[in-house]
Amino acid sequence: MLTRRGVLAAAAGTLLLGACGRDGKPEAAAVRAGGGPELVIGATLELSGPGAALGVAQERALAISAEAVNAKGVMVGNIRRTVRLEVLDNRSDPRLAARQATELGRRDDVHALLGGTLAETSMSVIGVAQELRLPFVSLAFGDAITVPLAQRAFIYKVTPEAGDVARRLAQVIDTEGLRRVVLLAEEGLHGDSGARAMTGALRTAGVALAGTVRLPRSKDGVARAAEEAVAARTDGVVVWATAPNSGAAARALRSAGFTGRLFFDAGAVAEETLESHNAPAVEGAYAIHPASLGGSTLANSSATGRAYRELVSQYVRRHGAYNGFAPYASDALLIITTAAKLAASVDRGRLRAYLQNQITDGMAGLYSFTPIRHSGMERHSLGVYRVDGGAWNRLS
């Protein structure tokens, strides 16, 4: 029998293969090929500042995948184009990200934009992308990035929906027999999405929410937030925060005397999450994350599996250990190049039309975009993981 994933994957776009990353300065970089027609994609990423725990890893994966695409080029109509990336460091500053998007968007030779691993930097780009009618694929977590649709016609997102992650987390908590938990959600748009989603998901699962504590951005407030969460006297804490805030929260909770179970949303997972300063605190923690984390994609013999194996191989060779972060940037590049192939054009309007009518099997998961759904990751792409022996182990 055909599974839903099998049917969708049968209609999937062409997969990216891997090559290698960049070791240069973080302020700005470009991946260029030889002369000839180009597909130019701008990228504003957090290569420094608080968002670097996510941004640097995504930039490395993006460079690997771009070099692979350029080994053959992208057939756009009857023209084979090379991809040129223009990568800028937004320093985790939303205002700088908006300026970069404006500069890139006003150029006639830039066809699409990706980036923003933080919700705030992505949100600052949205208005610019809409005004300049520039397709933008966000790498950030936060449901407000793609809604309301009337104001997000050119905006797309490759990260999972908060509701899908929350439902899986609530199911795990219920299965583990916990009846009362507290939510520690970071301040900002990502935490707002988590607070809304977890409240409903826990209610549906019959698990009591003892309270919601907001995790501040400043290091000074993390300890106080952790102490407040521990004071709720529950057996479980859901940490809804992006790295490195997620690891800092785990350390603070353990320092405050919490010995119960920790549960992370997908944004918590980065290379930094399992580094030595976090390892004791996160051991035994659960996380909901796309299937690329647990190595199931590596074992897949499909084109996706082969591409992902090559990505991991090149990443390890160029940058050292690879801990299974989701290559959202690679998938964003795949989605844009697939749209260009389908549209037989690099015109921004045509790219947008084919972005919102696309089913693509990516490295992080399966994507299904429609005119009324610009957050494309399928919920079936998510898995349940636990940290065992300092590594992510897939449970289901």
Automatic annotation (TrEMBL):
PROSITE patterns: PROKAR_LIPOPROTEIN, TAT
UniProt cross-references to SUPFAM superfamilies, sorted A to Z: Periplasmic binding protein-like I
Pfam family, one: Peripla_BP_6
Alphabetical UniProt keywords: Signal
Origin superkingdom: Bacteria
Domain Leucine-binding protein: from-to ranges: 40-390
Family: Belongs to the leucine-binding protein family.
Protein name: Branched-chain amino acid ABC transporter substrate-binding protein
Organism listed in the record: Micromonospora qiuiae
Phylogenetic lineage: Bacteria, Bacillati, Actinomycetota, Actinomycetes, Micromonosporales
